[in-house]
Amino acid sequence: DDTVYLFVVNHPHQKSTVELFKFVEDDNSLVHLKTVRHDLLTSVNDIVAMGPDSFYATNDHYFSDFILMFLEAFLGLTWSNVVYYSPKEVKEVAAGFYSANGINISPDRKYIYVADVFDHNVHVMEKHANWNLTHVKTLQLDTLVDNLSVDPHTGDIWIGCHPNGMKLFYEDPENVPASEVLRIQNILLEEPAVTRVYADNGSVLQGSSVASAYEGKLLIGTVFHRALYCEL
Ligand SMILES: *[C@@H]1O[C@H](CO)[C@@H](O)[C@H](O)[C@H]1NC(C)=O
Ligand SMILES: *[C@@H]1O[C@H](CO)[C@@H](O)[C@H](O)[C@H]1NC(C)=O
């Protein structure tokens, strides 16, 4: 059907839920349909919808306890994963990430892209009929990759990145986190084109985490700073 659904990652009391909404065009409102919770949805960072109540989710950590989460990152454990959720079946479909972050899908719906923020790369995974994912390739990038947006017309991947991620953890007005937006074209080719479309030392925009292009315009969002509108 033509119904527009909205999937929202929520973290009530340090736990993870996914909230499903239906958009009602007549009165421009959202109707809450349900709250999804599951033991495999431990530390959800991002999701990509597969149907009205099914999705892939990245868990950026194995642990949800704050101290254990810190230890996990500190020890460099690769226990972060991707989970497929539907009301009938929930399962781990990819594992072995330092910290799986942004997730998205190619316009032909054949490939899933997963950003591993601490490993500085984007994984291309092939999606199968049983929803399992198999690894196709990894594109190494010299920056911390956060959320991924896919242009539905061109298939380009737009990434909000952190060139100096540690600065996100210190609130030092003299030493603010920078911003960087990368555009990946033809990720399946041997040599995909990687373009640094936007870069700033933090004087304009701090901690870019997401970038989305639409009809010659670009919106860049951040972890806790403002959003930036650019004309391409
Ligand atoms: C982008 O990523 C950050 C951290 O990984 C997350 O907190 C934020 O909600 C994401 N934003 C969007 C628009 O997906
Ligand atoms: C950041 O860039 C701006 C503009 O180029 C410059 O004026 C400023 O000194 C830079 N700040 C730092 C901390 O490098």
From TrEMBL:
Residues carrying covalently attached carbohydrate according to the record: 147, 201
Membrane topology annotation: Peripheral membrane protein
SUPFAM superfamilies, per database record: Calcium-dependent phosphotriesterase
Location(s), subcellular: Membrane
UniProt cross-references to Pfam families, sorted A to Z: Arylesterase
Cofactor: Ca(2+)
Ligand binding (Ca(2+)): 45-46, 101, 146-147
Post-translation changes: Glycosylated.
Record-linked InterPro entries: 6-blade_b-propeller_TolB-like, Arylesterase, Paraoxonase2, Serum_paraoxonase/arylesterase
Manner of cofactor binding, per the entry note: Binds 2 calcium ions per subunit.
Gene Ontology cellular component terms for the protein in this record: extracellular region; membrane
Gene Ontology biological process terms in this record: response to toxic substance
Example of a GO MF term: aryldialkylphosphatase activity
Catalytic activity reported: a phenyl acetate + H2O = a phenol + acetate + H(+); An aryl dialkyl phosphate + H2O = dialkyl phosphate + an aryl alcohol
Keyword check for Transport: no
EC number(s) reported in the record: 3.1.1.2
Keywords: Calcium, Disulfide bond, Glycoprotein, Hydrolase, Membrane, Metal-binding, Signal
Free-text function comment from the UniProt entry: The absence of paraoxonase activity in turkey and chicken blood and in turkey liver indicates that PON2, if expressed, does not hydrolyze paraoxon.
Protein family per UniProt: Belongs to the paraoxonase family.
Protein name (database record): Paraoxonase
Organism field: Pelecanoides urinatrix (Common diving petrel)
Underlying gene: Pon2_1
